């Protein structure tokens, strides 16, 4: 229960404005970070920006700027997005920082010393957009233009001197590691893709470039810069002050618990990254989870397609918590999902305004009218009361397992079921008809408030701002939230005053 928890988002490529895909990865990571904190884990939550490579150099040149100045400007938008999304990240790493450069050079030196890197010549297809090399069978001709059939990005033929990492050497050790650690890659479908790719045969990997200069120089040959993925992936270590063996962060949080990434960069995280680490004799992360894309219509969002959904615009119109709730609940985690105005508005109305917000307001308004905003001091539970309260204790281990397995869908389904059960309980018990039976009236109000408290604690990692407003009814502060307390039935201080609550979510009027 008190295990340290280290979660990372991808580090985002700041060649353009943040879009909904960036917001999704960050919000999901924040969900796990928050829930682990209230489960009493010590949490380190990392996000940041990947600022080297040809794509950045070209984008800066197009604006007549130096790459570093360009990165300083664009990286700010991602830092600001972290604040707008109310992320609880511990750190924000930039690959242009000195601490990162030191880590990358150290890892390179280890690999070179172990004879895992050699100088040769590279020729093949390269995508500037993906910062990735593709084999012949991963490239297709589309209207006379060469594109990757994996990402759809343009590729170009590259021939140049390059340092290579002996990736082929690690094919069998990787396959054995996947077999010995069946949950290293999730979801299952993604793991099967990775295993199939590795079994098809690994070729040595180009890990330096000579045709551009924007990157960390190879320490033994300044004509080369370290290829972006060996550079970028090391951020997960550099944020912990690697290679400083005395670093408390490194001791406490490596290996990482969970690398949360989009499925399009799974190969780099589930093949190249573990191979680098195995070669350097560094422990591997516990899990890599490749989630799906947030689609615009039926297509992946991209700058070139001009179909980018701006999370800031949606937040401005509907609020942050409704967007967080929609992305966590309505997108089946692990699969692709899309966001539409109609679906978002329906979700706000049904789940947030009706089921949750209305329940809180009804119960507290009824309490104010009949108990003068006090927690009942005398109660007596019936079997039916215990049935609705006990489900949180009965299913507690199952809920915990959902979190550890990244089964967000089951976690959210449980919350929605309990919201319906709480509303049904209050309606069926009809406390407005029990005014002559004060003990029963008090008990119904108490049970309803306890259900609100339990459900709200579970919702806190999803909609933190709104949840804190609800928990303020009972005087519960953010630092006092304990996930384990959902198992208990009598945590509310009998006879204590409670606070009123305003409308949490405004219902959206929809035009027929």
Outline the structure in words.
The chain has 512 residues and is α/β, with parallel strands linked by helices. The chain has a domain at 341-487: Orthogonal Bundle (Isoleucyl-tRNA Synthetase, Domain 1). Helix content is 46%, strand content 16%. The chain contains 18 helices and 18 strands. It has helices spanning 20-38, 54-62, 67-84, 98-113, 171-180, 188-199, 228-233, 235-238, 248-253, 266-279, 311-318, 320-329, 341-371, 383-394, 396-404, 408-429, 438-459, 464-471; strands at 5-12, 43-49, 91-94, 117-127, 132-134, 139-142, 145-148, 156-165, 185-186, 205-206, 208-209, 217-218, 221-226, 258-262, 288-291, 294-296, 299-300, 337-338. Strands 3-2-1-14-15-9 form a six-stranded parallel β-sheet, sandwiched between helices. β1, α1 (20-38) and β2 (43-49) form a beta-alpha-beta unit. The protein is elongated and about 90 Å long. The model has no long low-confidence stretch (mean pLDDT 93).
Q: What descriptive keywords fit this protein?
A:
46% helix, alpha/beta, Isoleucyl-tRNA Synthetase, Domain 1, 512 residues, single chain, four-stranded antiparallel β-sheet
């Amino acid at each position: 229960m008190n295990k340290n928890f280290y979660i990372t988002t991808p580090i985002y490529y700041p060649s353009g404005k943040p879009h909904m895909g960036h917001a999704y990865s960050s919000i999901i990571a924040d969900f796990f970070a928050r829930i682990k904190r209230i489960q009493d884990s010590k949490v380190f939550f990392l996000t940041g920006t990947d600022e080297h490579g040809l794509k950045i150099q070209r984008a800066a040149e197009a604006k007549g700027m130096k790459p570093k100045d360009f990165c300083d400007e664009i990286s700010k938008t991602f830092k600001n997005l972290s604040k707008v999304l109310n992320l609880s990240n511990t750190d924000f790493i930039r690959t242009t920082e000195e601490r990162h450069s030191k880590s990358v050079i150290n890892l390179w030196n280890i690999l070179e010393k172990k004879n895992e890197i050699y100088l040769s010549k590279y020729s093949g297809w390269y995508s500037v957009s993906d910062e990735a090399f593709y084999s012949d069978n991963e490239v297709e001709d589309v209207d006379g233009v060469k594109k990757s059939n994996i990402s759809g990005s343009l590729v170009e033929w590259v021939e140049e001197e390059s340092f290579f990492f002996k990736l082929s050497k690690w094919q069998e050790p990787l396959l054995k590691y996947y077999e010995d650690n069946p949950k290293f890659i999730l979801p299952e479908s993604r793991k099967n893709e990775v295993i199939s790719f590795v079994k098809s045969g690994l070729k040595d990997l180009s890990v330096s470039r000579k045709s551009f200069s924007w990157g960390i120089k190879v320490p033994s040959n300044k004509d080369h810069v370290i290829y972006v993925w060996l550079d970028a992936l090391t951020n997960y270590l550099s944020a912990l002050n690697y290679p400083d063996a005395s670093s408390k962060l490194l001791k406490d949080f490596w290996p990482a618990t969970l690398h949360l990434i989009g499925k399009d960069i799974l190969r780099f995280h589930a093949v190249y990254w573990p191979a680098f680490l195995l070669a350097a004799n560094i422990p591997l992360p516990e899990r890599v989870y490749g989630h799906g894309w947030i689609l615009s219509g039926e297509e992946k969002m991209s700058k070139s397609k001009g179909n980018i959904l701006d999370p800031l615009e949606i937040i401005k119109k509907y609020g942050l918590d409704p967007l967080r709730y929609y992305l966590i609940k309505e997108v089946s985690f692990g699969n692709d999902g899309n966001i539409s105005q109609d679906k978002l508005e329906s979700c706000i109305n049904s789940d947030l305004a009706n089921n949750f917000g209305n329940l809180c307001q009804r119960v507290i308004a009824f309490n104010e009218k009949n108990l003068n905003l006090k927690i009942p001091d005398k109660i007596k539970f019936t079997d039916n009361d215990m049935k609705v309260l006990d489900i949180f204790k009965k299913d507690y281990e199952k809920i915990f397992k959902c979190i550890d397995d990244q089964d967000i869908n089951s976690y959210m389904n449980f919350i929605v079921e309990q919201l319906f059960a709480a509303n049904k309980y209050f309606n069926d018990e009809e406390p407005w008809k029990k005014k002559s039976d004060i003990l029963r009236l008090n008990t119904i109000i108490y049970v309803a408030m306890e259900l609100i408290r339990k459900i709200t604690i579970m919702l806190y990692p999803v909609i933190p701002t709104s949840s804190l407003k609800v928990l303020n009814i009972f005087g519960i502060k953010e630092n006092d939230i304990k996930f384990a307390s959902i198992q208990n039935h009598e945590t509310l201080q009998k006879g204590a005053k409670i606070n009123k609550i305003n409308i949490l979510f405004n219902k959206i009027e929809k035009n027929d």
